[in-house]
Amino acid sequence: MIFGAALWGTAGIAQELGAPTAAPPAVAAVRTVCGGAVLLLVALVANGRAGLIDTLRRGWGGCLVAAGAMAVFQVGYLGAVRSVGVAIGVLVAIGSAPAWAGLYDALRGRFPGWRWLLATILAIVAAGLLLLPTGTHEIAPVGIALALTAGLAFATYAVSSKHLLDRGAAGIPVIAIAIFGSGLLLSPALWLNDLGWLATSEGALAAAWLALIAIGASYVAFVWGLARLSAPVVTTLTLTEPLVAALLAVVLLAERLSGLPLVGAVLLVVGLLLVSIRPPSDATAVPPIRV
Q1: Which domain holds residue 218?
Q2: Which of 22-26, 98-102, 170-174, 270-274 tops mean pLDDT?
């Protein structure tokens, strides 16, 4: 789970280094169409055509919700990165997802647990600290709104995917349908935006990384964790992503993270530890996974 989230943390960097002038919706479309196609091939090899059909039969509505939520997440996430910077954009997008996921559970009468609650409180405090001006990026309200929308969309995606897994659907087909479906929903962006950046070596490398690593490898790790943990815990573990993104932004993009924002990054680590170290009783209750 943490490994997959760390790979996600490279997505914003890949966009800003390899396609700094590309429209975020176009980058999102390329990423999900290509990455989704790769995951579909993996699903066909692992589960066969029957596995994909079985997933749709178990909940085509859930598949549609997951695909729509993933499309919104991709555009909001990459748009926030472009607007307010990698470190802040990723943090607010992913850092808000656990609160949204926990709210979903609370609305269904299930309290996510004190570890999630404390980790989420720490994440909220960390978000406030990381949102303090650093002199590198002006905090644009539209960028923050995009990031919060991305967080809500990611939580929706996690909850709907978890529901399909709980109904017996295989993990890889679930993730493949959601990602490729989001790519189809975003495909109009391929005709409405300039794709000249794909003809450059930097752009092509960025697209390959976004599709094969930041989608393919990372989401396989994500679905492995999603089948074993609750959605609020999963979304909290993905706080690894903003930590990795912030570190890469400092090293590769010269974004500054010091003082109170640095304290916020430390609080994220504490929150990750809270939800990653589970009691023995929880560890023995892990359900079997179908990938």
Answers
A1: 2-278
A2: 22-26
Query: 204 is written with which tokens?
Result: 């092509």
In a domain, residue 284? The reply is: no
Count of structural domains, the chain: 1
Contact residues for 139 (Cβ-Cβ < 8 A; gap 6+): 84, 88, 131, 133
pTM: 0.81
The answer to whether residue 285 is domain-embedded is no
- Whether residue 96 lies inside any domain: the answer is yes
Look at residue 94 and tell me if it is in a domain: yes
What DSSP assignment string belongs to 181-241?
A: HHHHHHTHHHHHS--GGGGSHHHHHHHHIIIIIIIIIHHHHHHHHHTTS-HHHHHHHTTHH
Following DSSP, what letter does each residue of 130-162 receive, concatenated? HTS--SSS---HHHHHHHHHHHHHHHHHHHHHH
| C-alpha dist (Å) from residue 62 to 57, 158, 167, 231, 242 | 10, 11, 11, 15, 27
Cα–Cα dist 66/129, whole Å: 31
Please check whether residue 275 is in contact with residue 236, taking contact to mean a CB–CB distance below 8 angstroms: yes
